[in-house]
Structure formats: C-alpha cells, structure tokens
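QA checklist item 7 of 12: single-chain prediction sanity check.
[x] sequence parsed
[x] length recorded as 671
[x] structure emitted
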Amino acid sequence: MTRFPSSLKPIMTAFPIATALAISLSAHANEAALSESHQLMEITITASPFGRTSDEMVQPTLLLSGETLDNKRQATIGQTLSQELGVANSDFGQGAGRPVIRGQAGPRVDVLSNAVGAMDVSNLSPDHAVAINPLIARQIEVLKGPATLLYGNGAIGGVVNVSDSRLVTEITPGWSGAVEASVGTVARENQASADINYGKGPHQLHIDVTQARSDDYRIPGNSHVDGSGNEKRLLNSDTELRNGAVAYNHVDDNGNSAGVALSRYENRYGLPNEEEAFIDMKQQRFDSQVVLRNPVKGLESLKFRAGSARYDHIEFEAPGEPGTRFKNDEYQARVEAVHQAVAGFRGVVGVQFGHRDFSAIGDEAYVPNVVTRQGGLFIIEERQTAIGKLELGARIDQVRHKPDAGGPARQFTPVSFSAGTVYAFNEHTHLKASLTHAERAPATEELYANGPHIATGTFETGNANLKKERALNIDVGFDHHVGSLTFEANAFHKRVRNYIYGQDVGTTTDVDGEAFADLNYQQQNANFHGVEGAVTWSLVDTKAKKIDARIFADAVRGELADNQAVPRMPPYRVGVSLHGHQGPLSGNISLTHADRQTRNSGANETDTGSHNLLNADISYTLATRVGLGKPTLFLRGTNLLNDDVRRSTSFIKDVAPAPGRGAVMGVRINF
C-alpha cells in the first residue's frame, strides 16, 4: 500500500471532499459562459506594446481577469497573486504584501499601474505597501523572468501590471463598471468599492472609490513560532484603506485617444512584529495617456504615458508618537512607437525617463536622501521565420544616484539583450524559448543604507562600491489550450554575476538597548533554476455544465557561489483544484501544499515549516436586475484547515503567521 508523507495527508483527505463539492456545484455552463471562457484566451496583455495575447508572448505570462480575478482579489497585490504559478507573497501582515516572482523580489520586480510605475517606496522594504489598489483592477498581468527590455533594470526579475478603467483607448457607451461590498470573519473586515464609467460619443468619464478596514486577524495558535507571543489573534495587524480617482478620456473616430486621471491613496496599517508601531501612508497621483493610430507613414501607433506622484508615509512608534518619515516625489514618462514591417521585421522603438527625489527624515532613517535619474532607449523587433516567430531586442539605460550625504554619487549603464521564439504547432499549442542578458544597477538602500531598520529587526549596511548585476536567463515553455486535457509547463535557469543580497553576518548591533541583526549588502555570483507547470482535465464539458480539475506545482532554488542559499527563497508547492460552473452557480476549491524550507542564509534566518492551504468559494448570480446589473452573491473561505501558515519569503514569519480560518461574504454587481 502506498504511503504518503504526513505533510501531504491533508491533500489526500481533502481531495474527495473537494470532488464532491465541485460535482455538487456542477460546472461551466450555458453557451454564454462557454463563450466567455474561450474569450479569456484572447485578452491582450496591456504591458506589451504589440497588444499580444498570452499565447503570442515569448516571455512566460499569466493573466487574471473577469470571474477569475473576482474570486482571487484581496487587499494587497501580493495576497491576490500568492497562489499563482511562480509567484509568492513577501507577507508583512495584512497591510503590506509585494509579489515575489521565481524567488526575485524588492528592487528586482517592478509593479506598475497601467504600465507606469507605482512611484512609492515599496521596493525599499517589505513593510512598505504598494500604493496600487487591486480591489478596482480590471486585469492583472505578470511577466515572469527579465522584463528589462520594456521596463528597465528594475524589472530584471519580472513585472506585475495592474490595469484598471481609469485610462482607456475605447469608449464604452452608457453606464459600465462594478460595485462590490463584503464582510469577513477572520479580522472582522469590511470593504466596499465602486468603479463607475459613463461613455457618450467620444467622451468617457470615470470615478472609482474604495474603503476597507480590518481589525487584528485571527491566527491558529500562538503568534511566535516557539509557542510564545499572543494567542488566537495577531496584535497590531489592523488595517484601514481609502482610495479614489476621477478620470476623463476622449477617443475620436480614428481611434486616437487621450486621457487624464487624478487619484489619492491612503493606507494605515499596523506592523505586527511591533507592539504599537504602524504606518500612515498617503499618495497623490496624476496620470495621462495619449495614443495616436497611424500618425505618420510607416507607424502603426504612437503611445505616450506619463505619471507623477507625491508620496509620503510616517512610521509611528505608537499613536501620537511619529518616528521616521519617508517622502518620495517622482515622475515617469515613456513613449512607444510601433512601426510597420521593414524587411519583414515589425517592431517598437521607445524611450523611458524617470526622476525620483527620495528622503527619509528621523532618528531611525537608515537610508539617506537620494535623487535618482534614469533614462532608457529600447528596441524590440519580430518576424515570422521557419522556426516560428522570432523576437530580438536590446535596451540601454543610464541610472544615476546622488545622495545628499552618506556616500558618493554613482552612475551605471545597464545594457540588456534578448532573443526568443514562439513556435506554433497549431493555433492552441506552442513551444517557447528565450535567451536574455539583463543588467541591474544597485538600488538606493543597497548602496547607502546605514542604520537600524526597525520593521525587519536588522541593522543594514550598504556598500557604495557595488557593481552592476549581470544575469543570463534561459527559459523554455510548452503549452496546449484546447480539448479535454490542457497544460502549461516552464523550466528556467538564471546565472547572475555580482548578485546583490543582504548577508546576515551572524552578529548584532545594540541601538538604545535593542538588538538588531547585522545585515550587510554584498555581492557574489549566484544561480537560480526552477520549474512550474499545471495540467487541467475537463471532467464534464457540455453546453449546460462543465467541471475542470487541475493539478499544479512550482519550484525554484537559488544558490550563491559559496554554496549558501539565497535568502528568503519560496519552497516548492504542489496543489489540486476543482472549478465548477452551471448557469448562475459557480464554485472553486483548491488545496496547496507548501513544503518546509530549510535552505537558509545566515544565522538569523530560521527554518520554515510546511503548510497546507485549503481555499474555496461559491457564487450565485440572481436573475433579477438591481439598478444596472444582476447581483452576484459570493461566499469565500480561506485557510479552511486553520493551518499555521508561515511563509519563508517573509522577514517576520517567526512572529507573524498568515491569517487562520476565515470566511468572506458579499455582493458584486457588474454592469
């Protein structure tokens, strides 16, 4: 008789329960639902200037939209994407969570809003939230692997682009949008959001507003991994979010468009590794977009995007006791010109500029004030060949950091090249391969940090002599998207020269009676390799109903040249899921096993235990219209096994587990 490891027994126990639930829900269903499922494959990736679908992208890409996004969206982008192939969450409580793509995080992953950067300080530290609201997103795209050609050296590990309806290139006549409200049990949370658009003739108006709050969330046992700390609730994990925007877009009969958007983002959340400390964050942002169709002979389109933001947050030691203040005034602009085929090559030429004025003020400001200027020029060309679509690209950037104190000014010139191909066996089956050389300039904190970082419990010391990272990345993928059996699989290998990382040197520094683990920024060569894949079976597929079963797995390993592990790498994961849809009723259930992580770096990075995460949701769309649309009632359960979930990617995993068992119920109206 086959014996399963004890850590996998919950999966084997829960799978028949999941099957029974999915069958009871039946599945996909009427022609409209089937039509929608096929159309999802045709959604374009807005982060690509060519307007490609996922199948047409050389780079591995995942996309969340429609019902799939509705069922997965949470308060942070990291939480929303945490169960996707190749993506983990940095996990700093409920308030902050940034995506980790194939083990790459922080300044190696660029998070965008409508293809323009977040313009916050979330890449500086994991306790800083991303100033982009996933609760009003219409589409979230993840480009896995180097995306430096399009978005510069800060995207050497990948890109997450959150697309909403603030800036559009097509008018939707009349009223359109979505309204949602929900309440939850794990943190007595409640949230409400509205995304409303009105189009008439060449004009479209937009307004969105979000308000969400939560109390300290429930945990399965004690907060500290050693059994100490608080029991049943994680203290100081409460959150409060407010976000709103207004926008106007004009689109003429030739498809030329122009739009502007004003938004404000406010986020207040506790730091659960501290007793009373919390962050109070604000950002005001202006975005604009102009798209010209066939502006001159030889050009298919000319697109201009720009954004500017004033950002600041204060890290309070306790209510009424402000500590360090972080400010970031930033603007970004990019121009993309897509040209018609020349000698068989169709391509895009673009430029990108950025200016960032960062400052940290206070006794615990561990990074000095720094002005960063960046400019880049890129070209990407493609043509059909006997081995499929061939894509070639190159980019050169110039990055200059100028601190007002604490170190010398540094200037870098990252250069990137890429070659890839997509070979289509048929319309639905593709073989993809790419080879990329990508370079990254050191980030501000890596060069100039010098002081205690309260949130992570480290005393960080930068190195002003750091060199550029140089990465050679090989990626091979295969996918098939039609029939009763569909699958996708990717394998990748990355070799990095001068990889920059925070080395836990095993000593501590005392600051005002508090001990901080010494973290020095160093560099040496490193290797990363991994695989990710999923297989989906269509168990029932008729005009009236459909049931899909899926098994998925991903793994990544990072190792430094001295045979030490790269810090805070995600473990391997394997899981199963079932999706059912019949008429107005739909449901999903998934169980993911994350293995323990014992490959650590430094004396203060501890082992992480395995966990099993069981999530489920069910929704029902009413036949009666309310206002402009039909309400959908939903019920979502998270961590239903009430497992002690601690993520190896988190700095605070030993004192702050993820939330325990919870349920969210609400209503959503799409119109």
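[x] summary fact logged: Helices lie at 9-25, 31-39, 66-72, 77-81, 148-151, 444-448.
[ ] second reviewer sign-off
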